[in-house]
Write a structure and sequence with these properties.
By secondary structure, the chain is an alpha/beta fold. The chain has a single domain, classed as Rossmann fold, CATH 3.40.50. The protein is about 25% helix and about 25% strand. Strands 3-2-1-4-5-7-6 form a 7-stranded mixed sheet, with helices on both faces. The chain is globular, with a radius of gyration of 21 Å.
């Protein structure tokens, strides 16, 4: 089916801009189920399973301001048993219940105030991801769940505030065990290909539009963010050793 159906009364062909706009709207309205697949579905399924065990969860969704006026970005249908479902963003708009900055989220909501925090296509727009993750963990109650979906490979969008792309390793690093979190699943969705004259072979390497994570808060969140370094050496730097 073409994106724009032919109109006998129209003499001109649609412009590339019109075709692109229509294609974008159709793509947004019918996102492929693949976004939850290739391991990404495991994170979504884990979040749904954990949420069903909560009798009447209080749910917060981050980034609910509509990108398209006619299309809601809220996902309340996932949680029909929620006692309360609130959406927040950095400015007031349709589908936004209150304005908050995720980097200072606990100042707006209080700590340990929600059972589920859900965000889709949010983390790439957060200027300081570790700070945002820390605030999310503060706001979760013990036993609460965070589900986050963001992008591993994706065109630049939301200019001027499009900051990051993430791998599963990156998402796991945000919600580490030392922060009182248990990761249930992390994975990719929406397989993609990267084509570039600079690196013709790049199209043969794996790439995905989406990356998902589901993590549970099992212990109190530390006051300060605890980084888990890949280097296991807990020793004096090599330069200091040489001078000793």
């Amino acid at each position: 089916m073409p994106f724009i159906q032919s109109n006998p009364a129209r003499e001109k062909s649609p412009s590339p801009e019109e075709i692109g706009e229509q294609a974008y709207r159709l793509a947004i309205q019918s996102i492929s189920d693949d976004q939850w697949g290739h391991g990404g579905g495991d994170a979504f399924d884990a979040m749904m399973e954990l949420s069903r065990k909560m009798p009447a969860p209080r749910v917060l969704e981050l980034g609910t301001r509509r990108a398209l006026p006619e299309l809601s970005t809220r996902h309340h249908r996932f949680f029909p048993h929620a006692s309360e479902y609130l959406g927040t963003d950095i400015e007031m708009a349709v589908d936004v219940d209150f304005v908050a900055d995720v980097h200072r989220l606990s100042q707006f909501t209080g700590e340990e105030s929600f059972d589920i925090i859900f965000t889709e296509a949010g983390f790439e727009h957060f200027k300081y991801p570790h700070l945002a993750a820390h605030e999310i963990m503060k706001v979760l109650r013990i036993g609460g769940v965070i589900f986050a979906q963001t992008h591993q490979t994706f065109p630049i969008h939301g200019v001027p505030h499009d900051y990051f792309r993430f791998s599963t390793d990156a998402m796991r690093s945000l919600f580490g065990a030392k922060m009182g979190m248990k990761i249930h699943a992390a994975g990719y969705g929406s397989p993609a290909k990267i084509y570039s004259r600079v690196d013709p072979g790049g199209r043969n390497w794996p790439a995905f539009l989406h990356v998902n994570i589901c993590a549970e808060k099992i212990a109190p969140t530390p006051k300060d963010y605890v980084f888990e370094y890949d280097c296991l050496l807990d020793a004096v730097p090599a330069v200091a050793k040489t001078q000793a």
